[in-house]
Amino acid sequence: MKAIVHSTIRAAWGVCVLTAAILTPALVQAQSANDAQPVKALTISSSGALLMLQGSDLFAMEGGTSTKIALPATDQSAQPTTLARGADGSVYLAGPGLGVWRYDGAGESWQSLNNTLPDLGVTAMAAHATQPGTLYAYLGKDGMFRSRNGGAEWVKVDSGPQEPVQTFLHSDMPGSMESGWLFAGTTRGVARSMDCFCFWGDAGDLRGMVSAIDYDPAAPENVYAVIEGQLHHSADGGEVWTGLKVPQPVTALAFSPSQGLVVGTANGNLLARGAADEWAPVHE
Amino acid sequence: MALLTSGRLSMNNWIYSFILLAAPVIAGASGGPESADSTSTEVSQGRQIYEQYCAACHGWQGEGAANWKNPDEKGEMPPPPHDESGHTWRHSDAMLFKMITKGWRHPFNKTEQLTMPAFEESLTDQEIGAVIEYLKTLWTDEQREYQATESQ
Questions:
Q1: Which pLDDT tens digit goes with each residue over B123-138?
Q2: Which residues on B lie below 8 Å from A239 (Cβ)?
Q3: 20 to 30 A from A92, CA-CA: which of A168, A283, B110, B119?
Q4: Are B99 and A178 a contacting pair at CB < 8 A?
Q5: What's the domain range around B59?
Q6: With an 8 Å Cβ cutoff, are B90 and A174 in contact?
Q7: CB B137 within 8 A of CB B20
């Protein structure tokens, strides 16, 4: 009798394991299938995977599968809004109420970089294109802060452009007096400064609230900005801008080593631009 | 003397200038006059060189060109101030030395001219160093502190 019960339990357990094994990939895949939500931010991991922030969820998309990454445990009012990739491939997450965090892919954990920030009201952040330890954070009225040691110590360096910064980018475009350029998407357009924070000036005459900005690391004069879902491109470091047609309103930008410019859309899709300038779904 | 009679100098600059002038006396009392003397001499030399080579573009008091943040009619960036209203204090000694020595072209200039001419043929390394020390007298204490950190 005991043996019969035992073998029945084993059989039932086997069915459970088998069912779980069949369903798990579908569940993982389903975690990224929330197409209704706009893509808030994109970046690329050190392994080349696309990281997508959608709603309050973060997904890593690689090899045709999508894996949900747990966000740091923070106050419920925290709003993750920004992803950035450091020069060493480190991934950073930031947002109002959240401050700045770095993801440890090996340990699958987050490290807070907020010890010396005045508060957690980070509305935009960027990582230096070539210096792994250099990070920038914008805290609204508190101004712009820079860390040169990976977030261990933040120092206020500037007040930032006249208008509030919505999105932020460091670029290694040549021609700077120092080590690169900062592009800030503001409520008025794109502002640009050398990374000495010498002064902020208009990058061309693109006007409107900028919600995303990125550049092509392989051709740094090429800068992309999104205003009200419309994608704009500058081939001369932000002097002259032209509109690019995308089938859906654009909400996020990233440059993938394998696919080039990738856009996240208001419909929750990821699109990459092909050789003939056509847009096709990304299948990482 | 022109440094002390300038109406554009801030209180910080006045204090800094006072310190520079008073330093030999103070240093003499503490037994270390040579360093203070040499600093004062270097600043004085730097000011003379600045007035000879730099002031025509950057202003006699380092005030820079009017409207220096916007390109002029030729599409070139005007000379910026070197005083506390500019951004010179944001650069390290090494970067300032390089800028003065080699010159620099703003990438968004509409001409191919150097925005800042090179002075390596006109000035010695020591003279360029003296100009940089003089420029530091035009900044606030906080700016000098920031620049010293940048120079480390």
A1: 999 999 999 999 999 9
A2: 108
A3: A283
A4: no
A5: 2-150
A6: no
A7: yes
